[in-house]
Amino acid sequence: MTVQKHDPARKGEADKPRAPAGAGQPRRTAVITGITGQDGSYLAELLLAKGYDVVGIVRRTSHDSYERIGHLLDRVHIVPADLLDQHSLTSVVRDARPDEVYNLAAQSFVPTSWTQPVLTGEFTALGVTRLLEAVRLAHPTARVYQASSSEMFGKAQETPQRETTPFYPRSPYGVAKVYGHWITVNYRESYGLYAVSGILFNHESPRRGLEFVTRKVTDGVARIVKGKARDLHLGNLDARRDWGFAGDYVDAMWRMLQPPRPADYVIGTGEMHSVRELCDLAFSHVGLDWQKYVTVDPRFVRPAEVDTLQADPSKARRELQWTPGTSFADLVRMMVDADLERLS
Ligand code: NAP
Ligand code: GDD
Fold first, then answer.
1. Which of 180, 243, 293, 344 has a CA positioned 20 to 30 A from the CA of residue 121?
2. Per the residue annotation, which of 149, 150, 197, 205 is the catalytic one?
3. How far is Cα 140 from Cα 135, in angstroms, rounded to an integer?
């Protein structure tokens, strides 16, 4: 593995200029936690295409979870570590001496945060502190991206939501992400780490976990078409979200770590759609009427709901020149087509 050497530095590192990535520059190294997840797989592809050495943190399980990164395994360095284990994180950062660290690992499914609230706090909240401590102690020149969430806005205090909108989380997951956001801001302000919080709205893809509503619907449509299921049970059809394509959003993560000074950004499309509209688009793509197949099932209704989320991504557009490239309709069609293909 190619590693770059840096002089150790402490406070004020965020203000130091660095050479842009690209021709004539030494290869950059990035560490990704959560590389086996949806976003980790797209981010690894993006960074490899930019010429980075990619080090991916994977936790130990009895079965490997390389389904999303199987095609990348000969090009990334997989290292074992866990967000629950300080020593393993510090060792990875010390050995890799990365230019950039992307903390994407988390317990990321909102309903599980009610059934496993303590574990969610350990992974999704305290895990962020462990990773920041690893960077602070082992390699403080690394730039850190924290995967924050629009779930922090929860019971939204204004619409659309921007960087200054107050947080009002509505689940143990949302609360844990608020902690992760503020500890990131605090490490930046206390120690001068280059650490940013990317407040990303929902983003989906054919690699999305099957339990999230977009993938549950597109997989359900494909199963019904293939005769493997007869109906689809969902929860609150009135919930509205700002849904984008994950491939577009990992580019925003990378852009956030390039400016000379660190700042936090909201990333979303600025458009909101309901679960009902999602169903209509997905079923009509295969010529079916969703109302004949979808049943509301109380098992999927949450103890507290986030009714609406809509981003104001104007700061990212202005300062990072980031714009989403995929419409909601194209995203849903892409996901239905991929699920049909997978089941063929
Ligand atoms: P995901 O598909 O659920 O992936 C989560 C990743 O975290 C997996 O690689 C998982 O590894 C890893 N992980 C979980 N616990 C870990 C631990 N204790 N130690 C090490 N790794 C651990 O999530 P995603 O959709 O890619 O989202 C990436 C991040 O963005 C998450 O932090 C999520 O909360 C946040 N976020 C997502 C969205 C969205 O709409 N997708 C929006 C805002 C924020 P295994 O493969 O071993 O399970
Ligand atoms: N999962 C699921 N399953 N959601 C359903 C269902 C169902 O059967 N029926 C209705 N919904 C509604 C949920 O109540 C919620 O309002 C909405 O669909 C979206 O649910 P999810 O797709 O599970 O995503 P999320 O918004 O709770 O959380 C995702 O986005 C966050 C960013 O806002 C996750 O990716 C989080 O990790 C991420 O932070």
1. 243
2. 149
3. 5
